Amino acid sequence: MKPKAYVTRILPDKAWEMIEKFCEAEVWEGELPPPREVLFEKVTEIGGLLCLLTDEIDAPLMDAAPELKVISNCAVGYDNIDVKAATERGIIVGNTPGVLTETTADLAFALLMATARRIPEATRFVQAGKWKTWELTVLLGQDIHGATLGIVGMGRIGSAVAKRASGFGMKIFYHDVLRREEFEEELGVVFTDLERLLRESDFVTLHVSLAKETHHLIGRKELEIMKPTAILINTSRGPIVDQEALYDALKSGQITAAGLDVTDPEPISPDDPLLSLDNCVVLPHIGSASIATRTKMATMAAENLIAGLKGEMPPNPVNPEVLSSRVG
Ligand code: GLV
Q1: Within this chain, do residues 176 and 240 fall inside the same structural domain, yes or no?
Q2: How many angstroms does the Cα of residue 193 sit away from the middle of ligand 1?
Q3: Any idea what DSSP says for residue 57?
Q4: Tell me, what's the pLDDT at 328?
Q5: pTM for this structure?
Q6: For residues 149 and 8, what is the distance between their CA atoms, to the nearest angstrom?
Q7: Are residues 130 and 153 in contact, defined by beta-carbon separation less than 8 angstroms?
Q8: What are the tens digits of pLDDT across the range 94-115?
């Protein structure tokens, strides 16, 4: 008998075919994530769950799934999953690192450029028929070349952003819990504490994962330290930034602009005051959204799911100790 799996959203064909070949799989076909009560009903007999970052997978849900062996998240971030609870229950968790690094770094840089050069605002200007002549003092933005970039979180995506920034002749600071000397040599980036990074950077870009320690890492105090000409870019997770404090900082001119691919909550309400600001560019969490990358992510998530169902170590485990301790 094939093992049972539940998939919480329609996947690219290739990934779905891999899963169907190996499992008796059911998919939630809704446009929005499956409601919690549906998840509770569907997990009762499954061995594998393939989910997205919009699905909260917590201890009560795991307790409703006595057969569950593997949770495969189709994302690199896994703050939507209680990994500790999964480990305690012997459930292996997989994610999709690496394949989305360059695509997400592209988007972070696109957001930086769009915000610095006020591209969405300029587009609205043209659409509104306000372009009457070439003007010397209208829609002036910030230079990117030669500016100082502060990268908070020098992991895979942070370092990929640094590569792009060095091509633009930017001076680069980084802050991380770990010093990354290999990048210091390769990219000429300078390690610094968060305070100096915030005080001296023209652009600050966030690439840390969401955890208790990084929740509201950028709050009122941090925004106050930043230059009045500074621009904040967030492509990591919304709750890393205190959004109310950010609104006040943008409204009062304490910083110049922000570019956000992630918000808190997601989706952001259409009535959120941040959306009324011309100096805030908000995208709907599309960091990894290229056709090629999303296909690779889904394939990787399918591979993690299938390996977990076989009782094997998935290619990208988040809590490998679950299986290594069984073997040892
Ligand atoms: C997207 O945000 C991801 O974590 O893959």
Answers
A1: yes
A2: 26
A3: B
A4: 43
A5: 0.96
A6: 38
A7: no
A8: 999 999 999 999 999 999 999 9
Q: What would you report as the CA-atom Rg of the chain, rounded to the nearest whole angstrom?
A: 22
Domain count, the chain: 2
Angle between helices 13-22 and 291-309 in degrees, nearest 10 = 10
pLDDT of residue 324: 85
> What domain range is 65 assigned to?
4-98+291-327
Intervals of the chain under pLDDT 70? 325-328
Work out which ligand 1 atom sits closest to the CA atom of 262.
Answer: 2
Query: Domain check: are 184 and 312 in the same one?
Result: no
Instruction: Choose among 88, 5, 28: nearest CA to 303.
Output: 5
Atom of ligand 1 nearest to the CA of 96: 5
Closest atom of ligand 1 to CA, residue 95: 5
Binding pocket residue ranges, ligand 1, CB within 6 Å: 53, 75-77, 100, 287-288
Same domain, 256 and 126: yes
Sheet holding 190-191, edge to edge: 190-191, 171-175, 148-152, 203-206, 231-234, 257-260, 280-282
67 is catalytic: no
Q: What is the dihedral of CA 202, 208, 210, 216, to 10 degrees?
A: -30
Would you say the C-alpha torsion 137, 139, 141, 143 has a positive or negative sign?
A: negative
| Mutation test residue for ligand 1: of 76, 234, 297, the one with most atoms within 8 Å of CB | 76
pLDDT 10s digits, 140-199: 999 999 999 999 999 999 999 999 999 999 999 999 999 999 999 999 999 999 999 999
CA of 288 to the centre of ligand 1 (A): 7
Answer yes or no: 145 catalytic.
no
Does one domain contain both 267 and 299? no
Annotated active-site residue 285? The verdict is: yes
